[in-house]
Amino acid sequence: MYSNTHYLLALTHMPLVGPVKVRRWLEFFSTLENLFSASTTELRRAGLHRDEISLIKNPDWPAVEKDLAWIEESPYHFIVTQEDPYYPLLLREISGAPLVLYVSGNPEVLSLPQIAIVGSRNPSTAGMEIAYQFAECLAVSGFVMTSGLALGIDAACHRGALAVRQKTIAVLGSGLRHIYPDKHFSLAKEIQEQGALVSEFFPDTKAVAKHFPRRNRIISGLSLGVVVVEAAMHSGSLITARFASEQGREVFALPGSIHNPMARGCHHLIREGAKLVETATHIVEELRAFLDMFPGSLGGVGLKTSKKNLESPAFLDYIGYEPTALDTLVFRSGLTASKVSSILLGLELEGYVRAVAGGYERIN
């Protein structure tokens, strides 16, 4: 006797059979057991063509057993189906939601409120710092940080959340036995221990280009909103933003220099209606009300400041409500110019100070 998990895994192994088609079949048969036990005549009456009927009548049960054996390899391994309480409600709402998710880590984090940060694989140093700081701020404000484990902005998002010991989710365009890119193997292990790695692909699936748009729809589908930091035109980040818009999620974009080609994608999104953001505060204010929708979340919290950004608790006292020069802040704090610049960037992202002619001034 097979379980619904067996049937769902069998369906995922059938070529050219996707979630939309399976839902249509279930409208006719009501249950997975009815679908797999139906006669050829009943299947034909439900609209299945000859090849589909052959697949239903001859499921790849060895492949299913191989998937189930993967669960036994580690206490971190889970297979989450749409019938599972761990399956995220927001993802369930999207068209073509995966029938099955392979999870390495803690599956409970999938149901917590998430914000995605995505962007260029080859960002500027400033772009990396901004993504890292935004992730820190948003993570300590109650949001799980979600991204795609790619080089550049994705990695900065994950590392920012990990730095403040908060949860992060990486959605892969490969199976969970094939971490991509290879150089992020250690990062993936940290994410597994402090959040979750997620894929809709079988564990042995290698990364190929066509998988990444599918991966991107899951990143946006899991999230309340998507933040784009430095993206070129026609990039994967813009695909994620498009999915987010189609799924009814919020899209945020950070503006940049008109001379920076990595800002053009963000400027395009802003022209198309994405919300321009300059600080993490803007995002928290926009999405804070949704926190109460998630059991176990830090509902209703305000923006918190990461400890890293306020390594000197009195640093704000060095900044006046009138423009204060960088050299003055270096003198007052006794820190290096590089350290002061890093702290100022964090405070600016969090909405405590702003850059003005002549230096920085305190906002609150």
What does this structure look like?
The chain has 364 residues and is of the alpha/beta class. It folds into three domains: 1-72, DNA polymerase, domain 1 (Orthogonal Bundle); 107-293, Rossmann fold, CATH 3.40.50.450; 315-362, Arc Repressor Mutant, subunit A (Orthogonal Bundle), CATH 1.10.10. The protein has helices at 4-12, 19-29, 32-37, 40-45, 50-57, 61-71, 89-92, 125-139, 153-163, 185-194, 211-222, 236-246, 264-271, 280-287, 326-333, 337-349, and strands at residues 77-81, 100-105, 114-119, 144-147, 168-171, 196-199, 225-229, 250-253, 275-276, 353-356, 359-362. A nine-stranded mixed beta sheet has the order 1-2-6-5-4-3-7-8-9, with helices on both faces. The chain has a two-stranded antiparallel ribbon with strand order 10-11. A hairpin with a 2-residue loop joins strand 10 (353-356) and strand 11 (359-362). The model is unreliable at 298-313 (pLDDT under 50).
